[in-house]
Amino acid sequence: xxxxxxxxxxxxxxxxxxxxxxxxxxxxxxxxxxxxxxxxxxxxxxxxxxxxxxxxxxxxxxxxxxxxxxxxxxxxxxxxxxxxxxxxxxxxxxxxxxxxxxxxxxxxxxxxxxxxxxxxxxxxxxxxxxxxxxxxxxxxxxxxxxxxxxxxxxxxxxxxxxxxxxxxxxxxxxxxxxxxxxxxxxxxxxxxxxxxxxxxxxxxxxxxxxxxxxxxxxxxxxxxxxxxxxxxxxxxxxxxxxxxxxxxxxxxxxxxxxxxxxxxxxxxxxxxxxxxxxxxxxxxxxxxxxxxxxxxxxxxxxxxxxxxxxxxxxxxxxxxxxxxxxxxxxxxxxxxxxxxxxxxxxxxxxxxxxxxx
Length: 357
Prior knowledge:
Layout: E1 17-22, E2 25-42, E3 46-53, E4 60-70, E5 73-84, E6 89-93, E7 102-104, E8 109-116, E9 120-128, H1 130-137, H2 150-153, E10 163-171, E11 179-186, E12 204-213, E13 216-225, E14 232-242, E15 247-257, E16 262-275, E17 278-289, E18 297-307, E19 312-323, E20 345-356
């Protein structure tokens, strides 16, 4: 039984794929379906049982295409959209990096690319922002489920916190001895001379630098998105180190919201402990509101991943949110968070199954 289940835990957080190849071109179809039953109790708001999506891996459907152009050069595309298996709906996206998200077929990722083995890769379209990657990679709960740090890290950074539309991305080649860089400039697609002064709204610039080698992964990122009412600036730095008996996680984020003058910092420490082919994961998250600690909050989470195969996993997560007197943060739920009263606590337990194709 153990031999049949001897797989890498990291596979539980990713997806499998089916590839169709024609001569020098290929198209890969892939997807993930993740559904969970959640119990939540929030002070002053009561309790509820609900069905949620993406507690361990993001539910999605995607296509990746590549064409070998010769001489180390290739062209490609990625189309990836959200799926909510609990109700059959799809995802959303902000088309100009300013407005609220609207329904989108491939709102997760949608870009065309040109890649050189020697000079790196250029992508045009919509993809994850440079600052997002650190929040995702250095959270043992990968920003998903009731244990997700996203209620602190993504909530404060606006509509470009995870992805940017109308973007030009540059990624360095895989020939720098483990060092890498990624740059992103996104357009708000507005005329610059608008009478109300919002012509530059939605313009985004971001940069990520890092190193990945052996058991160490570390990176720092920064971004700025322009708005007439005040820019949103973010910096973050984090890393992981695999000690074999435990993989340690650490993350720091600082967000400055120009429209309100608020400055928030988030701190995360966590780990993943392998148990044969399975894993225990845990994290402690603290959000600090500069100038008003009564708005601080802490999130504690622990979970277990039980891998039935390379494609299918069961998981369970328990989390507890402790708000200071003026804070009312709630745990992440795709079915809608149960928000506690100011200064109240929030408790969640989640059990789910995920399968990949």
